[in-house]
Protein backbone atom coordinates (compact mmCIF):
# COMPACT_ATOMS: atom_id res chain seq x y z
CA UNK A 1 0.00 0.00 0.00
CA UNK A 2 1.12 3.54 -0.63
CA UNK A 3 0.70 5.83 2.37
CA UNK A 4 1.71 9.35 3.29
CA UNK A 5 4.87 10.68 1.62
CA UNK A 6 7.49 11.63 4.23
CA UNK A 7 9.73 14.60 3.51
CA UNK A 8 12.37 16.72 5.20
CA UNK A 9 9.80 18.76 7.10
CA UNK A 10 8.52 15.79 9.08
CA UNK A 11 9.40 16.27 12.74
CA UNK A 12 10.75 13.35 14.73
CA UNK A 13 10.76 9.64 14.03
CA UNK A 14 8.06 7.51 12.48
CA UNK A 15 9.07 3.94 13.23
CA UNK A 16 7.11 0.89 12.13
CA UNK A 17 7.79 -2.33 14.03
CA UNK A 18 7.63 -6.05 13.50
CA UNK A 19 8.44 -8.68 16.10
CA UNK A 20 8.56 -12.40 16.65
CA UNK A 21 9.10 -14.55 19.71
CA UNK A 22 12.69 -13.33 20.04
CA UNK A 23 13.28 -9.95 18.38
CA UNK A 24 11.71 -6.55 17.87
CA UNK A 25 12.75 -4.55 14.81
CA UNK A 26 11.94 -0.99 13.79
CA UNK A 27 12.33 0.72 10.40
CA UNK A 28 12.18 4.51 10.48
CA UNK A 29 9.93 5.92 7.75
CA UNK A 30 11.22 9.39 8.56
CA UNK A 31 14.70 8.19 7.51
CA UNK A 32 14.01 6.28 4.32
CA UNK A 33 13.14 3.08 6.13
CA UNK A 34 16.61 2.65 7.63
CA UNK A 35 16.75 0.44 10.72
CA UNK A 36 16.89 2.45 13.93
CA UNK A 37 15.74 -0.27 16.34
CA UNK A 38 16.79 -3.88 16.80
CA UNK A 39 16.73 -5.66 20.12
CA UNK A 40 16.16 -9.02 21.67
CA UNK A 41 12.94 -8.82 23.63
CA UNK A 42 13.62 -7.46 27.10
CA UNK A 43 17.01 -6.04 26.14
CA UNK A 44 18.39 -2.72 24.92
CA UNK A 45 18.32 -1.34 21.38
CA UNK A 46 21.55 -2.19 19.55
CA UNK A 47 21.40 0.48 16.81
CA UNK A 48 23.02 3.91 16.92
CA UNK A 49 21.32 6.95 15.33
CA UNK A 50 23.41 9.91 16.49
CA UNK A 51 23.30 11.37 12.96
CA UNK A 52 21.77 10.40 9.64
CA UNK A 53 24.90 8.63 8.45
CA UNK A 54 24.48 5.94 11.13
CA UNK A 55 21.60 3.41 11.52
CA UNK A 56 21.63 0.20 9.48
CA UNK A 57 21.25 1.46 5.95
CA UNK A 58 22.15 1.36 2.28
CA UNK A 59 24.95 3.58 1.04
CA UNK A 60 26.30 3.40 -2.51
CA UNK A 61 29.41 4.88 -4.10
CA UNK A 62 30.50 5.79 -7.62
CA UNK A 63 32.64 8.41 -9.41
CA UNK A 64 33.15 11.20 -10.11
CA UNK A 65 35.04 12.44 -7.08
CA UNK A 66 34.05 15.01 -6.05
CA UNK A 67 30.45 14.79 -7.22
CA UNK A 68 29.35 18.43 -7.14
CA UNK A 69 26.38 19.41 -9.34
CA UNK A 70 26.20 23.06 -10.31
CA UNK A 71 24.48 25.29 -7.77
CA UNK A 72 24.40 22.68 -4.97
CA UNK A 73 26.10 23.28 -1.63
CA UNK A 74 28.65 20.56 -0.77
CA UNK A 75 30.27 19.81 2.59
CA UNK A 76 34.00 20.32 2.03
CA UNK A 77 34.87 17.67 4.63
CA UNK A 78 32.96 15.06 2.59
CA UNK A 79 33.90 16.02 -0.96
CA UNK A 80 36.34 13.08 -1.19
CA UNK A 81 33.43 10.64 -1.09
CA UNK A 82 32.02 11.30 -4.57
CA UNK A 83 28.58 10.14 -5.73
CA UNK A 84 26.97 8.78 -2.55
CA UNK A 85 23.20 8.38 -2.14
CA UNK A 86 22.30 7.03 1.31
CA UNK A 87 19.07 5.78 2.76
CA UNK A 88 18.49 8.04 5.78
CA UNK A 89 19.24 11.60 4.68
CA UNK A 90 22.10 13.99 4.00
CA UNK A 91 24.79 15.68 6.06
CA UNK A 92 22.62 18.83 6.23
CA UNK A 93 19.72 16.87 7.79
CA UNK A 94 17.46 16.75 4.75
CA UNK A 95 15.53 13.51 4.93
CA UNK A 96 15.10 10.85 2.31
CA UNK A 97 11.56 10.50 0.99
CA UNK A 98 9.52 7.33 1.40
CA UNK A 99 7.45 6.45 -1.67
CA UNK A 100 5.89 3.20 -0.52
CA UNK A 101 5.93 0.78 2.39
CA UNK A 102 4.28 -2.37 3.66
CA UNK A 103 4.35 -3.92 7.10
CA UNK A 104 2.73 -7.34 7.19
CA UNK A 105 3.35 -11.05 7.77
CA UNK A 106 6.53 -10.47 9.76
CA UNK A 107 8.08 -8.42 6.94
CA UNK A 108 8.72 -4.73 6.29
CA UNK A 109 9.17 -3.37 2.78
CA UNK A 110 10.19 0.24 2.08
CA UNK A 111 10.88 2.14 -1.13
CA UNK A 112 12.48 5.57 -0.93
CA UNK A 113 14.31 8.31 -2.81
CA UNK A 114 17.66 8.63 -0.99
CA UNK A 115 19.72 11.76 -0.43
CA UNK A 116 23.34 12.41 -1.41
CA UNK A 117 25.22 12.49 1.89
CA UNK A 118 27.74 15.31 1.08
CA UNK A 119 25.22 17.59 -0.66
CA UNK A 120 22.59 19.98 0.68
CA UNK A 121 19.13 18.73 -0.30
CA UNK A 122 20.11 16.87 -3.47
CA UNK A 123 18.05 13.68 -3.93
CA UNK A 124 19.65 10.61 -5.42
CA UNK A 125 19.01 9.90 -9.09
CA UNK A 126 17.70 6.49 -8.07
CA UNK A 127 15.37 4.68 -5.71
CA UNK A 128 16.21 2.28 -2.89
CA UNK A 129 14.13 -0.74 -1.92
CA UNK A 130 14.60 -2.90 1.16
CA UNK A 131 12.91 -5.99 2.58
CA UNK A 132 13.39 -6.91 6.28
CA UNK A 133 12.28 -10.40 7.35
CA UNK A 134 12.46 -11.85 10.86
CA UNK A 135 13.67 -15.45 11.21
CA UNK A 136 14.31 -16.53 14.78
CA UNK A 137 17.18 -14.43 16.11
CA UNK A 138 18.00 -13.24 12.57
CA UNK A 139 16.90 -10.40 10.33
CA UNK A 140 17.28 -11.48 6.70
CA UNK A 141 17.55 -8.44 4.46
CA UNK A 142 17.42 -7.77 0.72
CA UNK A 143 18.64 -4.33 -0.37
CA UNK A 144 18.33 -2.88 -3.87
CA UNK A 145 19.25 0.24 -5.81
CA UNK A 146 17.34 1.11 -8.99
CA UNK A 147 19.63 3.61 -10.68
CA UNK A 148 18.50 6.37 -13.07
CA UNK A 149 21.52 8.68 -13.43
CA UNK A 150 21.42 11.15 -16.32
CA UNK A 151 25.20 10.70 -16.57
CA UNK A 152 25.50 7.51 -18.65
CA UNK A 153 29.28 7.11 -18.22
CA UNK A 154 30.34 3.61 -17.17
CA UNK A 155 32.60 4.56 -14.28
CA UNK A 156 35.09 2.15 -12.65
CA UNK A 157 33.98 0.00 -9.73
CA UNK A 158 34.06 1.23 -6.16
CA UNK A 159 33.66 -0.68 -2.91
CA UNK A 160 30.09 -0.75 -1.64
CA UNK A 161 29.00 -1.07 2.00
CA UNK A 162 26.74 -4.14 2.15
CA UNK A 163 25.32 -2.63 4.39
CA UNK A 164 26.59 0.05 6.79
CA UNK A 165 25.83 -1.08 10.38
CA UNK A 166 26.26 1.17 13.43
CA UNK A 167 25.85 -0.06 17.01
CA UNK A 168 25.57 1.75 20.32
CA UNK A 169 28.65 2.21 22.49
CA UNK A 170 28.02 -0.79 24.73
CA UNK A 171 28.74 -3.07 21.76
CA UNK A 172 32.33 -2.07 21.09
CA UNK A 173 34.34 -5.28 20.75
CA UNK A 174 34.96 -6.30 17.14
CA UNK A 175 35.18 -10.06 16.71
CA UNK A 176 35.56 -12.40 13.74
CA UNK A 177 37.40 -15.45 12.47
CA UNK A 178 40.32 -14.47 10.23
CA UNK A 179 42.17 -17.78 10.00
CA UNK A 180 42.67 -20.02 6.98
CA UNK A 181 40.45 -22.95 8.01
CA UNK A 182 36.92 -21.50 8.27
CA UNK A 183 34.22 -23.26 10.29
CA UNK A 184 36.60 -25.75 11.91
CA UNK A 185 36.16 -24.19 15.39
CA UNK A 186 39.40 -22.26 15.12
CA UNK A 187 40.19 -19.46 17.56
CA UNK A 188 38.37 -16.17 17.04
CA UNK A 189 40.20 -12.84 16.86
CA UNK A 190 39.25 -9.79 18.88
CA UNK A 191 40.05 -7.11 16.32
CA UNK A 192 38.90 -4.18 18.46
CA UNK A 193 39.08 -4.17 22.27
CA UNK A 194 39.11 -1.58 25.04
CA UNK A 195 42.83 -2.07 25.50
CA UNK A 196 44.37 -2.45 22.04
CA UNK A 197 43.76 1.15 20.95
CA UNK A 198 42.34 0.04 17.59
CA UNK A 199 39.03 0.70 15.87
CA UNK A 200 39.40 4.22 14.55
CA UNK A 201 40.18 4.56 11.71
CA UNK A 202 38.14 1.51 10.74
CA UNK A 203 40.04 -1.77 10.26
CA UNK A 204 40.03 -3.61 6.92
CA UNK A 205 40.13 -7.38 7.34
CA UNK A 206 39.20 -10.68 5.70
CA UNK A 207 36.30 -12.41 7.47
CA UNK A 208 37.04 -15.91 6.22
CA UNK A 209 33.82 -17.27 7.79
CA UNK A 210 31.80 -14.44 6.16
CA UNK A 211 30.63 -12.94 9.46
CA UNK A 212 31.80 -10.43 12.04
CA UNK A 213 30.24 -9.03 15.19
CA UNK A 214 30.27 -6.12 17.65
CA UNK A 215 29.72 -7.38 21.19
CA UNK A 216 29.79 -6.19 24.79
CA UNK A 217 31.88 -7.25 27.78
CA UNK A 218 29.90 -10.51 27.91
CA UNK A 219 30.45 -11.26 24.20
CA UNK A 220 26.79 -10.56 23.40
CA UNK A 221 25.73 -8.31 20.56
CA UNK A 222 25.11 -8.03 16.83
CA UNK A 223 26.61 -10.09 14.01
CA UNK A 224 26.51 -9.47 10.26
CA UNK A 225 26.69 -12.32 7.73
CA UNK A 226 26.99 -12.01 3.95
CA UNK A 227 27.81 -14.77 1.49
CA UNK A 228 29.27 -12.97 -1.53
CA UNK A 229 32.42 -11.34 -0.10
CA UNK A 230 35.00 -11.90 2.62
CA UNK A 231 36.28 -8.32 2.67
CA UNK A 232 34.97 -6.25 5.56
CA UNK A 233 35.48 -3.20 7.74
CA UNK A 234 34.99 -3.01 11.48
CA UNK A 235 35.75 -0.46 14.17
CA UNK A 236 34.66 1.88 16.91
CA UNK A 237 34.56 5.65 17.22
CA UNK A 238 34.70 7.31 20.62
CA UNK A 239 34.79 5.99 24.18
CA UNK A 240 34.17 2.25 24.27
CA UNK A 241 31.69 0.44 26.45
CA UNK A 242 28.78 2.81 27.02
CA UNK A 243 26.31 5.04 25.21
CA UNK A 244 22.84 5.05 23.69
CA UNK A 245 21.26 5.66 20.29
CA UNK A 246 21.84 9.43 20.32
CA UNK A 247 25.40 9.37 21.71
CA UNK A 248 28.30 10.00 19.33
CA UNK A 249 30.34 6.89 20.18
CA UNK A 250 29.51 4.00 17.88
CA UNK A 251 30.62 0.66 16.55
CA UNK A 252 30.73 0.00 12.80
CA UNK A 253 30.60 -3.04 10.52
CA UNK A 254 30.43 -3.00 6.74
CA UNK A 255 31.02 -6.00 4.46
CA UNK A 256 32.54 -4.64 1.26
CA UNK A 257 32.32 -5.66 -2.39
CA UNK A 258 33.52 -3.79 -5.47
CA UNK A 259 30.77 -3.02 -7.98
CA UNK A 260 30.27 -1.00 -11.13
CA UNK A 261 27.08 1.02 -10.66
CA UNK A 262 25.90 1.67 -14.21
CA UNK A 263 23.61 4.64 -14.79
CA UNK A 264 20.58 2.31 -15.14
CA UNK A 265 21.61 -0.65 -12.98
CA UNK A 266 19.34 -2.67 -10.71
CA UNK A 267 21.76 -3.97 -8.08
CA UNK A 268 20.76 -6.11 -5.09
CA UNK A 269 22.50 -7.86 -2.22
CA UNK A 270 21.36 -10.04 0.68
CA UNK A 271 22.70 -10.17 4.22
CA UNK A 272 21.64 -11.24 7.71
CA UNK A 273 21.79 -9.51 11.08
CA UNK A 274 22.18 -12.02 13.93
CA UNK A 275 21.51 -11.18 17.58
CA UNK A 276 23.13 -13.27 20.31
CA UNK A 277 26.44 -14.24 21.82
CA UNK A 278 29.47 -14.86 19.63
CA UNK A 279 29.22 -18.65 19.61
CA UNK A 280 25.57 -18.45 18.52
CA UNK A 281 26.33 -15.87 15.81
CA UNK A 282 29.10 -18.10 14.49
CA UNK A 283 26.89 -21.20 14.40
CA UNK A 284 24.09 -19.39 12.56
CA UNK A 285 26.63 -18.09 10.04
CA UNK A 286 27.96 -21.62 9.56
CA UNK A 287 24.49 -22.93 8.71
CA UNK A 288 23.86 -20.09 6.28
CA UNK A 289 27.24 -20.54 4.64
CA UNK A 290 26.50 -24.16 3.72
CA UNK A 291 24.01 -22.86 1.16
CA UNK A 292 26.48 -20.59 -0.68
CA UNK A 293 28.58 -21.54 -3.73
CA UNK A 294 31.48 -19.13 -4.19
CA UNK A 295 33.34 -21.13 -6.83
CA UNK A 296 31.12 -20.79 -9.89
CA UNK A 297 29.99 -17.47 -11.33
CA UNK A 298 27.48 -17.28 -14.13
CA UNK A 299 27.05 -14.05 -16.09
CA UNK A 300 23.66 -14.93 -17.52
CA UNK A 301 21.96 -11.87 -16.00
CA UNK A 302 24.63 -9.58 -14.53
CA UNK A 303 28.33 -9.30 -13.64
CA UNK A 304 27.92 -11.47 -10.50
CA UNK A 305 30.34 -9.28 -8.50
CA UNK A 306 33.11 -9.31 -11.16
CA UNK A 307 34.55 -5.97 -12.24
CA UNK A 308 37.34 -4.46 -14.34
CA UNK A 309 40.39 -2.29 -14.71
CA UNK A 310 40.61 -0.38 -17.98
CA UNK A 311 37.67 -2.23 -19.54
CA UNK A 312 34.19 -1.03 -20.49
CA UNK A 313 31.55 -3.65 -21.20
CA UNK A 314 28.08 -3.45 -22.76
CA UNK A 315 26.37 -2.74 -19.43
CA UNK A 316 24.99 -4.62 -16.47
CA UNK A 317 22.24 -6.31 -18.53
CA UNK A 318 24.67 -8.88 -19.83
CA UNK A 319 22.37 -10.69 -22.25
CA UNK A 320 23.92 -14.00 -21.20
CA UNK A 321 27.60 -13.11 -20.96
CA UNK A 322 30.17 -10.46 -20.17
CA UNK A 323 31.18 -8.99 -23.51
CA UNK A 324 34.02 -6.52 -23.88
CA UNK A 325 37.13 -5.45 -25.75
CA UNK A 326 40.40 -5.74 -23.86
CA UNK A 327 43.89 -4.45 -24.42
CA UNK A 328 47.31 -4.80 -22.84
CA UNK A 329 47.22 -4.32 -19.04
CA UNK A 330 43.40 -4.50 -18.90
CA UNK A 331 42.13 -6.68 -16.05
CA UNK A 332 39.08 -8.79 -15.23
CA UNK A 333 38.77 -8.97 -11.44
CA UNK A 334 36.94 -11.49 -9.27
CA UNK A 335 35.12 -10.77 -6.00
CA UNK A 336 37.16 -10.76 -2.78
CA UNK A 337 36.31 -14.36 -1.91
CA UNK A 338 38.57 -16.51 0.28
CA UNK A 339 39.87 -19.74 -1.28
CA UNK A 340 41.64 -22.14 1.10
CA UNK A 341 44.98 -23.79 0.55
CA UNK A 342 44.88 -26.30 -2.28
CA UNK A 343 41.11 -25.99 -2.77
CA UNK A 344 41.32 -25.13 -6.49
CA UNK A 345 43.51 -26.57 -9.24
CA UNK A 346 42.14 -24.72 -12.24
CA UNK A 347 40.09 -21.78 -13.37
CA UNK A 348 37.56 -22.83 -16.01
CA UNK A 349 36.34 -20.20 -18.46
CA UNK A 350 33.19 -20.75 -20.51
CA UNK A 351 34.02 -18.31 -23.29
CA UNK A 352 33.95 -17.39 -26.95
CA UNK A 353 36.73 -15.54 -28.77
CA UNK A 354 38.87 -15.76 -31.87
CA UNK A 355 42.66 -16.05 -31.79
CA UNK A 356 45.01 -16.02 -28.82
CA UNK A 357 44.46 -14.51 -25.38
CA UNK A 358 47.58 -14.27 -23.27
CA UNK A 359 48.50 -12.66 -19.99
CA UNK A 360 48.89 -13.51 -16.33
CA UNK A 361 46.67 -14.61 -13.48
CA UNK A 362 47.29 -12.48 -10.38
CA UNK A 363 46.39 -14.08 -7.04
CA UNK A 364 45.89 -12.08 -3.84
CA UNK A 365 47.71 -14.38 -1.41
CA UNK A 366 46.30 -14.11 2.10
CA UNK A 367 48.84 -13.55 4.89
CA UNK A 368 46.56 -12.75 7.83
CA UNK A 369 46.75 -9.54 9.87
CA UNK A 370 49.40 -6.91 10.46
CA UNK A 371 50.17 -5.27 13.81
CA UNK A 372 47.13 -3.00 13.44
CA UNK A 373 44.76 -5.92 12.74
CA UNK A 374 44.35 -5.05 9.06
CA UNK A 375 44.67 -7.71 6.38
CA UNK A 376 47.89 -8.41 4.50
CA UNK A 377 47.88 -9.60 0.88
CA UNK A 378 50.83 -10.51 -1.30
CA UNK A 379 50.63 -11.19 -5.03
CA UNK A 380 51.63 -14.21 -7.06
CA UNK A 381 51.41 -14.43 -10.83
CA UNK A 382 51.01 -17.26 -13.31
CA UNK A 383 51.23 -16.83 -17.07
CA UNK A 384 48.40 -18.13 -19.23
CA UNK A 385 47.64 -18.48 -22.91
CA UNK A 386 44.53 -19.84 -24.61
CA UNK A 387 43.42 -20.11 -28.23
CA UNK A 388 39.88 -19.75 -29.58
CA UNK A 389 38.28 -20.33 -32.98
CA UNK A 390 35.24 -18.11 -32.55
CA UNK A 391 33.14 -20.88 -30.99
CA UNK A 392 31.91 -21.08 -27.41
CA UNK A 393 33.87 -23.69 -25.41
CA UNK A 394 35.51 -24.40 -22.05
CA UNK A 395 39.09 -23.28 -21.39
CA UNK A 396 40.99 -24.56 -18.33
CA UNK A 397 43.74 -22.43 -16.75
CA UNK A 398 46.04 -24.60 -14.62
CA UNK A 399 46.63 -23.02 -11.19
CA UNK A 400 47.77 -26.17 -9.35
CA UNK A 401 51.12 -24.65 -8.42
CA UNK A 402 49.39 -21.98 -6.32
CA UNK A 403 49.38 -23.83 -3.01
CA UNK A 404 48.40 -20.81 -0.91
CA UNK A 405 45.23 -19.28 0.45
CA UNK A 406 44.07 -16.42 -1.73
CA UNK A 407 41.35 -13.78 -1.68
CA UNK A 408 40.21 -13.35 -5.26
CA UNK A 409 42.22 -13.08 -8.44
CA UNK A 410 42.42 -11.13 -11.68
CA UNK A 411 43.20 -11.90 -15.30
CA UNK A 412 45.59 -9.29 -16.66
CA UNK A 413 45.69 -9.34 -20.43
CA UNK A 414 48.93 -9.04 -22.42
CA UNK A 415 47.18 -9.06 -25.77
CA UNK A 416 44.28 -7.28 -27.41
CA UNK A 417 40.96 -8.75 -28.44
CA UNK A 418 37.25 -9.22 -27.89
CA UNK A 419 35.81 -11.67 -25.38
CA UNK A 420 32.42 -13.15 -24.57
CA UNK A 421 32.57 -14.76 -21.10
CA UNK A 422 29.60 -16.85 -19.95
CA UNK A 423 30.92 -18.16 -16.63
CA UNK A 424 34.00 -18.60 -14.44
CA UNK A 425 34.49 -21.66 -12.25
CA UNK A 426 37.21 -22.48 -9.72
CA UNK A 427 37.54 -26.26 -9.83
Q: Could you write a compact summary of the structure shown?
A:
The chain has 427 residues and is mainly β. Helix content is 3%, strand content 47%. A nine-stranded antiparallel sheet has the order 6-7-9-10-19-16-15-12-13, with helices on one face. Strands 21, 23, 24, 26, 27 and 29 form a six-stranded antiparallel sheet that branches.
Query: pLDDT under 50 segments (min length 5)?
Result: 1-10
Radius of gyration: 22 Å
Helical proportion? under 10%
Based on secondary structure, the structural category is: mainly beta
The total count of strands amounts to: 30
CATH hierarchy class name of the largest domain: Mainly Beta
Overall mean pLDDT stands at 96
Which of globular, elongated, flat, extended, rod-shaped describes the shape?
Answer: globular
| CATH architecture label name of the largest domain | Distorted Sandwich
Major sheet details: 9 strands, antiparallel
Strand order of the largest sheet: 6-7-9-10-19-16-15-12-13
CATH topology of the largest domain, by name, is Beta-galactosidase, Chain A, domain 5
The share of residues in extended strands comes to over 45%
Structure description:
The longest helix is centred in the middle third of the chain and has 12 residues. The chain folds into two domains: 275 residues, Distorted Sandwich (Beta-galactosidase, Chain A, domain 5), CATH 2.70.98.10; 131 residues, Jelly Rolls (Sandwich), CATH 2.60.120.260. A hairpin with a 2-residue loop joins β9 and β10. The protein contains one helix and 30 strands. The strands form six sheets. A nine-stranded antiparallel beta sheet has the order 6-7-9-10-19-16-15-12-13, covered by helices on one side. It has 427 residues and is mainly beta. The termini are far apart.
Amino acid sequence: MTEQIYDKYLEGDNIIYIENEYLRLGANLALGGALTYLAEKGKENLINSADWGRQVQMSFYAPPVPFHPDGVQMAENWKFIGWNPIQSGDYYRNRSRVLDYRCENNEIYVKCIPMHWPLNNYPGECTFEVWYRLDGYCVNVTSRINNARPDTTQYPARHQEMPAVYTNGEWYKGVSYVGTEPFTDGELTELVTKDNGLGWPWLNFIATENWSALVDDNNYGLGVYIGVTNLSKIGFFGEKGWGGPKDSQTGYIAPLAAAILDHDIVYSYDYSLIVGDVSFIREVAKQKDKLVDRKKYSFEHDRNQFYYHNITDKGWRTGGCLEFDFKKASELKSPAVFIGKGECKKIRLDACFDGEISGEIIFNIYKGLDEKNCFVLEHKKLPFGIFGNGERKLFDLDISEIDDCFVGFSLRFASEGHLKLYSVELA
